[in-house]
């Protein structure tokens, strides 16, 4: 039997190569008609509320973790990269790997999974919502579905737990909102991948156009599973649908009807049919990347904190804390939300590196809450001049305030053990239509140092002190009414 996990790397940072974006996305070019803004008042309000949350957690966990894989992509025949390869010590055929993969549920115990600890840690990190993998492309459900025997609650699965229910309950108890990650493709379903036929890639080998009677059961199955998740697991703030290649005209799943039913069951839900675009993609989800500029629609960057979307080794390493903080500041300054990706290891445990990293992120976020949550991007980039204007400056706005962040040049290399740098001192002249009206004050949020400020017809002038900062600094400029 191949080992279910790989040895832990000795370096807690490791090497970080982002997953192939094409593999996880649409699977081919998609015509973009432009963002379609919702018109339903409840959806509009839900989207505005979601944009206030800013910082979320996406958790991947499943059979693939138990096998030391970075996802269920090893079942796919495309062989487009290392993440699609079978375990090195497995010597069987691809068909035998498929059987072995699903049989691993018999030993997938996840005995160390503690959803309460994950929820507490996420809250400490400053996260406001969760997106949980309820089912990845392999079709193995991490909840008690009635429509498949491949599930975490099955008698033949060593786990024997409804992971979605336990996790949602724990996160809600900590005040976080909960979202459903659900894969539209399901490689375990015989009407998606008919095992009696050749399987060559990620797409269905059933032709929906010429074999509607063979395709229809898969569509019905998909709708029923989504309905289960939206009726039996409490309030869900987002239906995060992955596998963008499963779309009309090649793989039609009556998406409009599915989205309408989701909104009927959960009137305040956001539907995100990732990379497909159109009315059922309430916000966009760039993956493993940061947009270069402010985007003219709601969006969320999903980016891993570890080497991939899940922990495929015990004591999974992380990126430096400064990298995550730089991402957070950059994303919110450009109008987006930040969805940080981690996951339990094969036993369900949280890597000590993940825990320590998330707690360190939270120590920074807690000091800068007023400049993060409920903020929006500026209408235009502020004009900065003066001795202190060098380097990376980013900004957000909120009622009666402008929040100006300074990112040190090497912030992405700064970890929890050595986060200290200095705020560049000297004059900083700021011109922006987003500056608050009236009498203004300026404060360095970390430490509360007051910053001398004068105002003229062109904007404001700050005399920045040379004070220590941890990872990044924020100078908050407030009006008297703030």
Automatic annotation (TrEMBL):
Which Gene Ontology molecular-function terms are recorded? alpha-L-fucosidase activity
Report the superkingdom from the record.
Bacteria
Q: Which Pfam families match?
A: Alpha_L_fucos
The EC number(s) this enzyme carries = 3.2.1.51
* Similarity remark: Belongs to the glycosyl hydrolase 29 family.
Please verify whether the record's keywords include Hydrolase: yes
Write the record's keywords in alphabetical order, separated by commas: Glycosidase, Hydrolase, Signal
- This chain's protein is named alpha-L-fucosidase
The uppermost taxa in this organism's lineage are: Bacteria, Bacillati, Actinomycetota, Actinomycetes, Micrococcales
Q: Which species expresses this protein natively?
A: Candidatus Brachybacterium merdavium
Q: Which SMART domains match?
A: Alpha_L_fucos
Query: EC class of this enzyme?
Result: hydrolase
């Amino acid at each position: 039997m191949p080992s279910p996990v790989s040895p832990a790397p000795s370096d807690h940072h490791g090497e970080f190569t982002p997953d192939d974006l094409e593999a996880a996305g649409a699977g081919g070019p998609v015509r973009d008609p432009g963002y379609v803004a919702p018109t339903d008042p409840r959806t509009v309000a839900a989207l505005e509320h979601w944009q206030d949350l800013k910082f979320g957690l996406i958790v991947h966990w499943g059979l693939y973790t138990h096998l030391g894989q970075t996802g269920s992509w090893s079942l796919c025949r495309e062989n487009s990269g290392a993440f699609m390869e079978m375990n090195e010590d497995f010597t069987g055929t691809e068909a035998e790997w498929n059987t072995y993969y699903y049989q691993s549920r018999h030993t997938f115990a996840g005995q160390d999974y503690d959803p309460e600890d994950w929820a507490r840690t996420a809250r400490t990190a400053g996260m406001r919502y969760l997106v949980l993998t309820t089912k990845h492309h392999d079709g193995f459900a991490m909840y008690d579905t009635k429509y498949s025997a491949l599930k975490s609650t099955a008698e033949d699965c060593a786990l024997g737990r409804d992971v979605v229910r336990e996790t949602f309950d724990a996160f809600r108890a900590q005040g976080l909102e909960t979202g459903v990650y659900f894969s539209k493709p399901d490689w375990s379903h015989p009407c998606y991948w008919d095992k009696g036929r050749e399987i060559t890639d990620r797409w269905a080998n059933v032709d929906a156009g010429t074999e509607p009677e063979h395709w229809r059961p898969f569509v019905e199955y998909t709708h029923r599973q989504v309905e289960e998740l939206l009726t039996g697991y409490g309030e869900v703030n987002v239906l995060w649908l992955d596998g963008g290649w499963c779309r009309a005209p090649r793989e039609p799943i009556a998406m409009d009807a599915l989205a309408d039913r989701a909104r009927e069951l959960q009137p305040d839900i956001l539907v995100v049919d990732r990379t497909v675009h159109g009315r059922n993609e309430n916000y966009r989800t760039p993956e493993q990347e940061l947009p270069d500029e402010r985007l003219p629609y709601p969006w969320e960057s999903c980016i891993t904190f570890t080497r991939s979307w899940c922990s495929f080794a015990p004591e999974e390493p992380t990126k430096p804390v400064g990298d995550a903080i730089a991402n957070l500041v950059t994303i919110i300054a450009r109008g987006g939300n930040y969805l940080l990706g981690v996951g339990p290891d094969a036993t369900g445990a949280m890597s000590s590196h993940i825990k320590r990293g998330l707690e360190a992120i939270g120590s920074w976020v807690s000091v800068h809450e007023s400049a993060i949550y409920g903020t929006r991007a500026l209408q235009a980039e502020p004009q900065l001049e003066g001795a202190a204007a060098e380097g990376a400056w980013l900004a957000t706005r909120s009622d009666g305030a402008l929040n100006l962040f300074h990112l040190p040049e090497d912030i992405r290399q700064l970890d929890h053990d050595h986060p200290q740098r200095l705020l560049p001192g000297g004059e900083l002249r700021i011109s922006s239509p987003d500056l608050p009206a009236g009498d203004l004050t300026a404060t360095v949020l970390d430490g509360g140092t007051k910053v001398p400020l004068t105002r003229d017809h062109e904007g404001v002038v700050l005399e920045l002190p040379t004070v220590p900062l941890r990872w990044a600094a924020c100078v908050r400029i407030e009006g008297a009414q703030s």
